[in-house]
Amino acid sequence: MLKAATLNALTDAGREESFHAARAIIRHFDGIEFGIEYLELPTGGEVAYVNTGDTYNATLLHVDGEWIYSSWGDVYEAAEAARCEDTGEVRCGYCGEWSEPGGCHDDS
Ligand SMILES: [Zn+2]
Q1: pLDDT given for residue 5 in this prediction
Q2: Rounded to the nearest whole angstrom, what is the distance from the C-alpha of residue 59 to the centroid of ligand 1?
Q3: Which of 2, 13, 32, 102 could form a cystine bridge with 17, CB 3.0-4.6 A?
Q4: Secondary element (H or E) of residue 72
Q5: Do residues 19 and 6 lie in contact, with contact meaning Cβ atoms separated by under 8 Å?
Q6: In angstroms, rounded to a whole number, what is the distance separating the alpha carbons of residues 90 and 97?
Q7: Rounded Cα gap, residues 42 and 74, in angstroms
Q8: 86 alpha carbon to ligand 1 midpoint, in Å?
Q9: In Å, what is the CA distance from 103 to each residue of 20, 31, 79, 106?
Q10: What is the CA radius of gyration of the chain?
Q11: Per residue of the chain (108 residues), what is the pLDDT tens digit?
């Protein structure tokens, strides 16, 4: 098992290096290769994660300069909640756009 310090040292590398590092880590773990994907968070940051095929599978993610072990679904939901709390905006259930409460597709 790799030490946390080793993983954190990888955060000094750029995006391309992190991509290759994450692939190498996964090969080291179990010999199975998964794709690395990038996701823009509602709070503006970007998360890189090892796609294991399910939104809520625990996996390796690179978030805000740290490697964490969680699921991208949980990280994304936490970022959505943080944005709602910080800005008072809501996400439209029809088009997915962020707006003021009652805006967008709310006809009531
Ligand atoms: Zn809408």
Answers
A1: 52
A2: 32
A3: 13
A4: helix 72-87
A5: no
A6: 8
A7: 13
A8: 20
A9: 43, 49, 21, 6
A10: 17
A11: 445 555 555 555 455 666 666 666 666 565 555 778 899 999 988 898 888 888 998 888 888 878 888 899 999 999 999 999 999 998 888 888 898 887 787 655
Measured in Å, residue 92 CA sits from the centre of ligand 1 at 5
Fill in the amino acid letter for 44: G
Inter-CA distances, 10 with 7, 22, 45, 59, Å: 5, 9, 18, 17
- This prediction's pTM: 0.66
Structure tokens that stand for 42 in this block: 């509602």
Residues with Cβ < 8 Å from 72, sequence gap 6 or more? 39, 47, 49, 55, 59, 61
Q: Which amino acid, residue 52?
A: T
CA of 91 to the centre of ligand 1 (A): 8
Take residue 6 and report the two structure tokens written for it: 């080793």
